[in-house]
Amino acid sequence: MFLQIDNLCKNFNTKNGTLTVLKNINMAIAQGEFICAVGASGSGKSTLLRQIAGLDTPTIGEVRIEGQRVIAPGPDRGMVFQHYTLYPWMSVQDNAEFGLKLQGIPKKVRREQASYYLSVVGLSAFAKALPKELSGGMKQRVAIARALASEPKILLMDEPFGALDVHTKESMHEFMLDLWQRTNITIFMITHDVEEAVFLSNRIYALGSRPGTVRKEIQIKLPHRNATVKRHSIFHDYRDELMDLLRQHGQEAMLAAA
After folding, report:
1. What is the separation of C-alpha 89 from the centre of its chain, rounded to a whole number of angstroms?
2. How far apart are CA 254 and CA 82, in angstroms?
3. 180 and 201 Cβ atoms separated by less than 8 Å
4. Structure pTM?
5. Is pLDDT above 90 for 66?
6. Based on the domain organization, do 68 and 176 belong to the same domain?
7. pLDDT value at residue 255
8. What three-state secondary structure class fits 27?
9. Which domain holds residue 146?
10. CA of 53: how far to CAs of 28, 152, 155, 178, in Å?
11. Helices (H), ranges, 29-135
């Protein structure tokens, strides 16, 4: 299995004692899959992503990529955040090259790699522009190009479209599907947007809250993936199943905390 998460638990020490954020997380993800983890606030989505990225370490359990235990960040994992995290004084080209520069990649090589991925995301014509000259969707595409420029094995996405308006978000969804199909990269995305998860992913892990646990794994099989599928009954069935599941576990968490 390409990405394996085994019995992962994450605790934090607080002034009120130990807080368990993630409990017994188990996931198995094949190369080339588009996976979404969906959950409400308190389900530990971002904490889970940090474990995969190597930005934090599990209290118990482990994360492995191609059999290698994740113990720190690495170029095999590209990261895209909700906010674009672009440097406003740098051009689009320089922003796309930045990760490669940190890795010590020679200037000529990083220029070629970054330029290639700017073309992949459709922004070659804006290479000399500054971020302030771009729309929100274009800024996020620069951030995706920057993540892809290091040619990672997996792309990790932390609610990447949460700050976009509805129209731009829909355009970015179609862009991501096209990008995924063209590059065959493995994508692991967290989101609280149920419709977004159903539209984009082949499998969804639904997370319960307090502590975050995998409540259900759902295989998504849609007849096609374009805007019209959202009017299809099977899309509504997946959406309603997930909504009911998250609502049920949210109510359980509230009762447990009362």
Report:
1. 26
2. 27
3. no
4. 0.91
5. yes
6. yes
7. 43
8. strand
9. 85-151
10. 16, 11, 10, 24
11. 45-53, 92-102, 107-120
pLDDT at 258: 43
Are 63 and 166 within one domain? yes
pLDDT of residue 252: 54
Determine the Cα–Cα distance for residues 23 and 242; give it in Å rounded to an integer: 20
Q: What is 205-216 written as a DSSP string?
A: EEEETTTBEEEE
Q: DSSP label at 181?
A: H
The mean pLDDT value for 71-88 works out to 88
Q: Domain count for the chain, please give it.
A: 2
User: Residues 143, 164: one domain?
Assistant: no
Q: What is the mean pLDDT of residues 144-168?
A: 90
The token pair at 15 is: 């002034």
146 with 182, same domain: the answer is no
Kindly give, in sequence order, each residue whose CB lies less than 8 Å from that of residue 145, ignoring residues fewer than 6 positions away.
Answer: 96, 114, 117, 118, 120, 121, 123
- Do 166 and 250 reside in the same domain of the chain? yes
Q: What is the mean pLDDT of the chain?
A: 90
41 CB burial (10 A radius; 0-12, 13-18, 19+) = exposed
Q: Is 169 helix (H, G, I), strand (E, B) or coil?
A: helix
